[in-house]
């Protein structure tokens, strides 16, 4: 169960950080 939660956490972190990474790469 712990590994499952960790996996979901990592996936959520990736999903949340994706837009920020894109903004950092392409500043408006």
From TrEMBL:
Specify the protein name. Uncharacterized protein
Tell me the organism's taxonomic lineage.
Answer: Eukaryota, Viridiplantae, Streptophyta, Embryophyta, Tracheophyta
